[in-house]
Amino acid sequence: MTRRRLLVLTALGACLLVVVGAVAGARRAPAGGRADRALAPAGARAGAGGAGGAQAGSRGLGDPYFPDAGNGGYDVRHYDLDLRWDPGSGRMTGRATITARATQALSSFTLDLVGMRIDRVTVDGDRAPARREGDRDVRITPRRPLARGARFTVVVAYAGGQNRVGAVSPVEPGWFADDTGDVYTVFEPIGAATLFPSNDHPSDKASYRFRVTAPAALVAVTNGRLVRTTTDDGMRTWEYDEPDPMASYLVQVAIGNLDVVRGRGPDGLPLRDVIDEDAGRRPAALARVGDMIDFYDGEFGRFPFGTYGGLVVDDNLGFALETQTLTLFGEDAADQPTVVAHELAHQWFGDDVSLGSWRDIWLNEGFATFASWLWESHDRGVPVADNAALAARSSGNGVPPGDPGPEHLFAGSVYDRGALTLYVLRHAIGDDDFTTLLRTWVRRYGGRSATTADFEALAEEVSGQDLGPLFDAWLRSDEMPRLSDWVGGDDPAVR
Ligand code: TRP
Ligand code: ZN
């Protein structure tokens, strides 16, 4: 039942994808053609030390699906974001203080920023000229070139309204505000740049500090934990800290008539659900989150962050999004235990261990889907094999989860055939090695970004088996393999 509803949600997403994909239009050629930062750190070509031979940082990271997303030549350590929300005008006024390290000698560099007016930029305290380059980049030229390895601080003052990024997703990513003054963010995959200047790619994770100022009658929440609030002249500022590295698309900033419900999870983990008052009661499925964390702790290793909870907005979005420590749920998605379990699993798979490139998307969606099968088996006794058999009946043909292409980033195959890949892998290497594999994966790559190749290598390392044929068939072949060819006739999934 819930499983069916999840499929409906996925199908709904797929339908919307078709529409959004058509609007997105042609994509530009790769900017730098550079491989993932996770594989090849940018800047290997500049000499060590000094700013001699400084070059312009590339406008993109050469992601195979979104070549202009992110920027070359530096690595962000920390974002300090000041956001002031004016519901009357629908404008957000921002000041971003970005601390980064140059990975090459830089004569100039870019930041991703979509559709905002830039008022002032400084680099290490000096005014620096900034000009637009293409539709999602701003090129900044510091007064003096930056040496390779140098730490530097960029401050960008800016302002503007809502914008959308024409990328493939259940909705066009961006920040959303309605006429009642409510705000929330939906950035996957490359929409964070509509709200703040960023290195908008999951291969460059950073810690965050947020200060959100809004009329004092409203409540503001973000990822992480509340540090303090201050009130001045009818406006309240909410300060939050997210110390754990976070990919830009996982940022959540929500403002509105919000109820914050606090609790405690396993080992005293602070839990926090945030419910839009117009969305009604806190959905019962969210009350199971403590039990789910307890279960996943045992399967994957301890919950990776300092807090967790759901943000339920007053819209029937037909989806949820695993924004770090504070998952966004459409009103319609929040009361589905399978969806709640899926999003929670993303905190390990996607949020803690992040994508090296968008081509690796099955590392998020296949894993979260498989994890929700484990939860259903644990909680309700639904055999994992039953979920596998259901998924095997879905159409995974034509969209290999290991390279779905940007138009099919969130296609059903990425979820179902991706999860089946883990199911046949578990069958091939056995339960014990499989559990060791997932736990080692999180321990080794948590806080960082990793690729499909990293996962395949670790699976072979842990099991001592040649798994090339399995991954080729399940992740990369056009046609979905027959489950019965991989799990043997005595498995109930085959019947
Ligand atoms: N990652 C979401 C999930 O848990 C689905 C999703 C993909 C999404 N892209 C999105 C949700 C964009 C909101 C916006 O399956
Ligand atoms: Zn997901």
Q: Please name the CATH topology of the largest domain.
A: Immunoglobulin-like
Report the biggest beta sheet as strand number plus sense, adding barrel if it closes: 8 strands, mixed
* Structural class determined from secondary elements: alpha+beta
- Percent helix: 25-40%
Uncertain runs are 1-48
**Total number of helices:** 10
Identify every distinct bound molecule in the structure, by name, code or SMILES: tryptophan, zinc ion
Proportion of β residues?
25-35%
Instruction: Report the CATH architecture of the largest domain.
Output: Sandwich
Gyration radius (Cα, Å) is: 22 Å
Distance between the termini: 20 Å
* Integer average pLDDT: 90
Question: Numbering strands along the chain, what is their spatial order in the largest sheet?
Answer: 6-5-9-3-2-12-15-14
The CATH superfamily of the largest domain turns out to be tricorn interacting facor f3 domain
In total, the number of domains comes to 2
Label this structure with key terms:
alpha+beta, Neutral Protease, domain 2, 2 domains, eight-stranded mixed β-sheet, five-stranded mixed β-sheet, 10 helices, globular, disordered N terminus, binds tryptophan, binds zinc ion
Gist?
It is built from ten helices and 23 strands.
Structure report:
The protein is an alpha+beta fold. It folds into 2 domains: 3-354, tricorn interacting facor f3 domain (Immunoglobulin-like, Sandwich); 355-487, Neutral Protease Domain 2 (Neutral Protease, domain 2, Orthogonal Bundle), CATH 1.10.390. 27% of the residues lie in helices and 27% in strands. Strand 17 (258-264) and strand 18 (270-276) form a beta hairpin. The radius of gyration is 22 Å and the shape is globular.
